[in-house]
Amino acid sequence: MFKKILLVLTLLTLLSCNVTKPVIVTKKAVPSSSKKVASRSVKKTNGVKPILKKEQKQVDEEGEVIKSTSVTYVGTDVIGKYISQYKDIAMSNMKIYGIPASIILAQGILESGAGRGDLCIRANNHFGIKCHEGWTGESVRHDDDSSQECFRKYYEPAESFNDHALFLTGRSRYASLFKLPKEDYKGWANGLRRAGYATDPKYPDKLISYIERYNLGQYDAYVMGKDYTPIEKQETRIAAFESQNKSLYEVQKGDTLYSISKKYNLLVTELKQINNLSANTISIGQRLKVK
User: Fold this and answer.
1) Which of helix, strand or coil describes residue 267?
2) What whole-number distance in Å separates Cα of residue 286 and Cα of residue 291?
3) Is pTM, for the whole model, over 0.70?
4) How far apart are CA 61 and CA 29, in angstroms?
5) Are 160 and 92 in contact (CB under 8 A)?
6) CA-to-CA distance for 133 and 152, rounded, in angstroms?
7) N or C: which terminus of the chain carries fewer CB neighbours within 10 A?
8) CB-hemisphere CA count at 13 Å for 156?
């Protein structure tokens, strides 16, 4: 009997030890997945997809570079959508303030990067208007002629278009523009540059290029109740230009230094050297020496 009791006590002791003994679970080491975490942590800013090298090449071949308050790569379809989206506001402002709709749209395309530029995305600023003295609204800092300059910020794009009209009509330096015929887009483009709207000497040529390539004059004609004759096709204009001066080439949409160098049997380095170019960036309407 005593042996049986001793056996039972021994078994209970063993069971008690098994229950209270801590259980150690070992895991196989898992390598760090910092790359995976990093990719998940990258956030898209304002819904704009970053342009990768592969995509960059595609844009360079099919689109163009818009360089104003920022450098923006866009396709022709992006510019077309921008025009479609804001043409009604431009025509309305032409009726109210007397600024040609073609000029409004061309400036908007150039200054905002067709709506894709950094300043436009961050501040709804479609015309690159800086704060200037007396501005009491919101603002953002952006590198332009100088580092971290003050630019106006708007709640929505319509406010930017309206402020652009007030900016031009409210300053005496632009008064001479309103004496020009509304269909004189070349006079307006050059007048804006002379009045100090932009420091880029090619600013008028860029505006004129957009107006002619996208037939923006049709919106001026619509407001004035006149018929509009589309400007001749770009290819015809290029051919005429090249026949007159075969030593120069006017940069067109989709052009890159590489494609131009191939066309004229040059090296990219040669093309850059004869045109005093330090970078590979070229602009629509820019004239390059090719001989």
Assistant:
1) coil
2) 16
3) no
4) 48
5) no
6) 11
7) N
8) 3
CA 240 to chain centroid, in Å, comes to 31
Beta strands in the chain (DSSP E): 63-67, 71-75, 139-142, 149-152, 248-250, 287-289
Q: What angle do CA 131, 136, 141 make, to 5 degrees?
A: 40
Please report, for residues 111, 150, 152, 277, the alpha-carbon distance to residue 144 in angstroms, rounded to integers and kept in the order given: 12, 9, 13, 20
Residues 6+ away with beta carbon under 8 Å from 59 = 51, 73, 74, 75
Spatial CB neighbours of 39, under 8 Å, sequence gap ≥ 6:
none
CA distance 250 to 263: 13
Q: In whole angstroms, how far apart are CA 119 and each of 52, 142, 149?
A: 21, 7, 11
Nearest to 138 by CA among 126, 151, 121: 151
**286, 251 contact by CB (below 8 A):** yes
What gap in Å lies between CA 127 and CA 111, rounded to an integer?
5
Helices 101-112 and 217-224: crossing angle in degrees, nearest 10, is 150
Q: How far apart are the first and last CA of the chain?
A: 118
Average pLDDT for consecutive 10-residue bins of the chain (291 residues)?
58 51 44 38 37 38 63 82 95 97 96 90 91 81 75 93 95 95 94 92 92 94 93 55 62 86 85 84 83 72
Instruction: Tell me the two tokens of residue 270.
Output: 């040669």
- Which residue in 229, 255, 252 sits closest to 239, CA to CA? 252
Two tokens, residue 5: 């009791």
